[in-house]
Amino acid sequence: MKSTRDYHWPEPIVRVQSLSDSGICTIPTKYVKPLNDRPCLSNFSDVNIPTIDLEGMNNCKEISEACRDWGFFQVVNHGVPPELMDEARQVWREFFHQPMDVKQSYGNTPKTYEGYGSRLGVEKDAILDWSDYYFLHYLPAYLKDYNKWPALPSSLREVMEEYSKQVVNFGGRLMKILSENLGLNEDVLQNAFGGEDIGACLRVNFYPKCPQPDLTLGLSPHSDPGGMTILLPDKHVAGLQVRRNANWITVKPASHAFIVNIGDQIQILSNAIYKSVEHRVMVNSTEERISLAFFYNPKSDLMIEPVKELLTTHNISPLYPPRTFDQYRLYIRTKGPQGKSQLGESNKSNPQHDKCN
Ligand code: OGA
Ligand code: NI
Prior knowledge:
Its cofactor is L-ascorbate; Fe(2+). It catalyses: jasmonate + 2-oxoglutarate + O2 = (1R,2R)-12-hydroxyjasmonate + succinate + CO2. Residues 197-298 form the Fe2OG dioxygenase domain. InterPro entries: DIOX_N (IPR026992), IPNS-like_FE2OG_OXY (IPR044861), IPNS-like_sf (IPR027443), Oxoglu/Fe-dep_dioxygenase_dom (IPR005123), Plant_2OG-oxidoreductases (IPR050295). The model has no long low-confidence stretch (mean pLDDT 94). β1, α2 and β2 (72-76) form a beta-alpha-beta unit. The chain is globular and about 60 Å long. α3 (82-96) crosses α5 (156-180). It has a single domain (4-356), classed as B-lactam Antibiotic, Isopenicillin N Synthase, Chain (Jelly Rolls), CATH 2.60.120. It has helices at 16-21, 59-69, 82-96, 100-104, 156-180, 188-192, 264-269, 308-314, 325-335; strands at residues 51-53, 72-76, 115-117, 132-139, 199-207, 219-222, 228-232, 240-244, 247-250, 258-262, 279-281, 289-297, 303-304, 323-324. By secondary structure, the chain is α+β, with helices and mostly antiparallel strands. N-oxalylglycine binds next to β5, β11 and β12.
C-alpha cells in the first residue's frame, strides 16, 4: 500500500550547498550531532586501508584478507582509464555548480530517491547530514532513464554511460575474485546476484564547505545496504573514515585508485565471512568535497541468503534469514543511516566521541 510518505519528504528540503553559500558562521541545530557522534578533526594517524595492485602478485590473497578483516580496500591498476575518472568527477562538479533552479528541476522524492537530494530517511525531526547528492539508476536497463540524468553539462550523460559501463565491468572482475576467495566457483556470487540481471546505481555525494565541521558529519555512520561499493573519492580532499574496532581510520586515497567496500548483501551471502563495515564522512571549512559511489547490487527481487555450499563446507548455520534486496533497503530509506542496525547488529559498541580535547 502506498502512503503519502512515499512521495513527500517530512519537512521542507533545504539544500546544504545554499546554506554553505549563504555565508553563515554557525550551522542550524538540525545539523548539530550529539556530542558522542561528533568527529575528531585532528586525528592524524598513518594507518590506512589496504592497497591492492590488481596487476600485482598475490592480489587475490590480499583481497581475501581485506574483505575478511577490513571490509574495505583501495585498488590501483584496475583498468578504468584515469582520464575517464577525472572527467566523471568533473562533470558532476559542474552539475553542482549550476544555478539552484537548474538543480531543483531534478529534485527527488523518497519514492525512488532518483534525482537531486539532500536527505536520506523520512523521519521527521531527524538530525541531518551536511551534504547534498544525486542518485541515478544504471542497471537494470529498464530503470535507466536519461531524462532523470542531468542534461547539463552536455557531456554528462555520455561520460557517465562510459564510466558506468567500465565500473560494472571492474565490479564483475572483483566478484569472481571474491567468489574464488571463499572457495567457491568464480560464478557463484555473481549468479546469486542474478547473473546478467544485477542492479547498479550511482550516488554522487557533494559535501559543501562547513563553518563548524567539528559539530557535524557529511555522512553519518552506515554500512552500504547493497552488494559492493566502488567509490571514486575526491582528488584532493580527504573525508571518508572507516570504522576499525573502536577507531575511525581516515582513508588516504592513492592517485586514481578506487575505494572498494563490501556491502550488506555480500556479508549476508558470505555468512559474515566478509564484513560490511561502517563508515562515515567528515567535512571541513575550507574545501568542498565530491565523491562518486557506484553501487553494484543484486537483482532487487531475488532472495538473498547465505550461500548453501559455504554452510555445508564449513558446517555452519545461516546467520541471516532470506530477504530480497528490495525488502532490505527499505530500512535505510526510511530511517536514514543508522550504523549497522539493519543487519541486526547493535550500535552500542560504537566508538565513543574521539578524545581530542
Ligand atoms: C556512500 C558513502 C563515502 C564518501 O555514498 O555510501 O559512504 O566518501 N560515501 O563520500
Ligand atoms: Ni557508504
